[in-house]
Protein 1
Amino acid sequence: ILFQCLFFATSVAAWNGLEVITVEIYPSAKRCTAFGVLNGTCKLAAIIGSVIFAKFIGITKIIPILLAFAALACGGLLATKLPDTREKILE
């Protein structure tokens, strides 16, 4: 249970960090819309992920593990492509 709590705490912190970073890329006038779109996309992806996980868990347990690994690895690699906004004034 302790490891599961640690994993969930880490993943929630990582996802919240990614959401904040991606919203900060947009100018101030578009941030609310951007945050809403990203939040809606995340909710839809969570529903689709749960359905896919439930379908594959009955077949074999390695497929959901590999899918989760691929999603996290792709997200981490794509995060390196975000523009550097340090010391920039965002309008």
Protein 2
Amino acid sequence: MPPLIFTAMPTEHAHALQSGADDAYGRRPERMVSTGGGMPCRHCLDHIAEGADMLVVAYRPFPALQPYAETGPIFLHAEACPRYAATEVPPPILATSPDFILRGYGADDRIVYGTGAVTLQENIVSRADELLARADVAYVHVRSARNNCYQCRVDRA
């Protein structure tokens, strides 16, 4: 099987939000100061350091509105940061929680029923691999098991 690719939000979208563009709810990003751990940037896929400026925005990781296009809060560094580049390995933000929700989506960007499951951190790669082996799963979202917040996307290379 081809390797997995862990992808962050598109740079163009992150930079637009960092420049003050409206979020998925048509609101300006909220500016805050990070309290440290648990504030993962969805562009560099690393944690925002304590005391660093950050943004809280509504994010919809889907190309268009439709009933399954979930929107939720995410954090971003307030200033431009490099997009996560080591796409062949799970990003740093996935190392600090014991588990995550992995869910498969079809080519139509809709949830593939029966694919969502809370997955232990050490099983993320094998579970994503299993889901992406299915013909009806085009990509996988990794989401917080506690709050359902979007973390990153997983595709096949």
